[in-house]
Amino acid sequence: MSVLDLARPEIRAMQPYSSARMEASGGQVFLNANESAWAPSGEAGQGCNRYPEPQPAALVEALASLYGVRHEQLLIGRGSDEAIDLLVRAFCRAGEDAILIQPPTFGMYAVCARIQNAAVVEVALTADFTLDVDAVLAALTPSVKLVFVCTPNNPSGRPIPRASIERLAAALTGKALLVVDEAYIEFVDAGEDGSVSDLIERYEHLAVLRTLSKAWALAGARIGCLLANAEVIALLRRIIPPYPLPLPCVAAALEALSPVGKDRAHEHVRIVREQRMRMTEALRDLPGVREVLPSQANFLAVRFEQAAAVYQRLLAAGIVVRNVQRYPNLGDALRITMGTAEENARVLQVLQEPVLHEQALQGDAI
Ligand SMILES: *Cc1c(COP(=O)(O)O)cnc(C)c1O
């Protein structure tokens, strides 16, 4: 059985759009794509009168080497969000198929499924936010085509052990595509489990999501990747829009992946890890903090006695954090992204101020 047997038959059968850029080869005078013959005004737009390469060779090369996969095992999209959407559309028949997720987790899996009218099977993470492989397998039905696992998980910050992922991959063979979202994997401490992308060779129905949005500081450029079996990548190339990657974004990504860019990114990841450790310790000592969940990502999920009030207090001081109280098992938690040392110190300062002071201020306002 091929992994493609899990995909929608009509997607496998369809004739993909053939763009002018794909059909062209060679030539110096380009009159085939109804583009403007003139460059737009302004530095930022140079080269933008032409449609971009669908999968720019230089960026494919840089990312394949970064992630240790072959070119044909990589699809670059507008953030890993686009890859999630493409996977759901390629594998889930509307009104029939399903995805499986483990709440509390990243919201986009369920959003993409609902847009496609695919069902969402939920198998909660354990009380300490790890993956219950047996529970996932017990909940599996023939309609589940995609199983998403997020590691380190957003919003808990806890990584899923490689052994659990491998056990799941082995058990899902021929049944469902396992999609491991590694948006935060660069922030994992040395000595902890790293990326599982090397397992793609062994499990043809394993896919890995990577992104330049977090550790590579390019959230605004929208560049993310799917690493998977070459057949899965070829299938998704049929349905991705013809020119997904804007030229200026590709240029920004190539600069970020240059030797200088890499040094810079590694240094910032090092600072995030150090800040994560310091903030974990400092927050644990504060009154009103119930628990700081151990995190391997660039954020901390923190339980407070009065999370909503703390959220408002930080906001009043100009600091915006994420209220994650709506997530199961996180009803008393806020998610705090690691900023610069100065930004994090401001968070601590606001949380250290006695609450009496705040009540007095509120009294004044009334
Ligand atoms: C931020 C995030 C992403 C989205 O990444 P983009 O590449 O910016 O689309 C994917 N997965 C998780 C778990 C995230 O937290």
Task: Describe this structure as you would to a colleague.
The protein is α/β, with parallel strands linked by helices. It has helices at 9-13, 20-23, 57-67, 79-91, 108-115, 133-139, 162-172, 230-239, 247-256, 259-284, 307-316, 341-352, 355-365, and strands spanning 74-77, 98-101, 119-122, 144-150, 177-181, 206-211, 224-228, 289-292, 299-304, 322-323, 333-337. The strands form 2 sheets. The chain has a 7-stranded mixed sheet, with helices on both faces. A 4-stranded antiparallel sheet has the order 8-9-11-10, with helices on one face. Helix 4 (79-91) packs across helix 5 (108-115). It is globular. The termini are far apart. The mean pLDDT is 95. Bound molecules: pyridoxal-5'-phosphate. Pyridoxal-5'-phosphate is lined by residues 79-81, 106, 150, 154, 181, 183, 211, 213, 219, 224.
What is the level-2 CATH architecture name of the largest domain?
A: 3-Layer(aba) Sandwich
Mean pLDDT: 95
Helicity level: 25-40%
Count of discrete domains: 2
Overall 3D geometry? Answer: globular
Taking all Cα atoms into account, the compactness measure Rg is 23 Å
Span between N and C termini? 69 Å
Question: Any ligands, ions or cofactors bound here, and which?
Answer: pyridoxal-5'-phosphate
**Helix and strand succession?**
HHHEHEHEHEHEEEHHHEEHEEHH
- DSSP, total strands: 11
Q: Sheet with the most strands? A: 7 strands, mixed
